[in-house]
Amino acid sequence: MGDLSVVRLRAGVVVPAGAGFAVNIDGSRPPVSWPAGYIPTAGDAVRVLMVDGSAVVMGPVITTGLRPLTGTVQGAATAGIVPVTTDAGVLHCRYVGTAPAIGALVRLDWQSTSPWIWPSAAATVPAPTPDPGGGTPPPPPTTTSGTLTITATDSGAWQVGGTWAWAGNDVIQYRYGSARENRGAWFYGNGAAQLAGATITGARIRLGARLRIGSYNAAQTLHLYRHTNAARPAGDVTRVAGPHDITLAPNAKADWTHIPTAWGQDLINGGGIAVAGSPYVGITGVDADPASGQVQLDWRR
After folding, report:
1. Cα 298 from chain centroid?
2. Of all helices (H) and strands (E), which one includes residue 266?
3. How far apart are the C-alpha atoms of 175 and 279, rounded to whole Å?
């Protein structure tokens, strides 16, 4: 009898890699095979089947469960994106060829986690025949709600007067001794844009495990800020709100913590979360922990 294969189902996150994409699995980026019907996007959460060291992406993982079939174009195209009103709220969709007209009913394609519009308008479905009795009042308007989890596409620490590269992508605050000061950040691309038009009712961030740097055997304060950069800039990020202080216990493990609800509302327009100030303390970045910096936004419409 031959040796048994070792099969594991692992969680991963799609990350940019040169001109294409790779999958970050617990800090490693093994060669992977992609399903033919899936178009990867940076930041997608995926499931990966590991068989004797070979990796096969099974497809993206969603948490909201709602992928509408059609929608109505709400506004004009901007940079190849049009807003489309759907049962899941306003979605920002890509299109092929000429932008669809405002008010057009369009068919959405979901081969990636961001929808594309089919080239032709969707056929309309006749409205139901009115109740001949005429005495039934219309139902009250419905309110939808849910929680969206956004995975950080990148993280790192910028050294004042230096670069982003020295510490990999761990998120570090302040400095060791007389070394250059560090200012860390997580980045999310446009991951929260799908909630445009929604009201945010709560927000949380998942901090990775505390690094064994500085006075790691003592409680220390982490100063969180909101910044406006979708990806790493050449220098420091633009911090616009904060600090929101979090006390990190000695040798703290990865855990969720609340951030201001107003920050969650503002993240819909882009940007991310940063750390700055003293003392010297650090958080595991997305290479070692793909869920580091994940943000959960509670929403309603």
Report:
1. 14
2. helix 261-267
3. 8
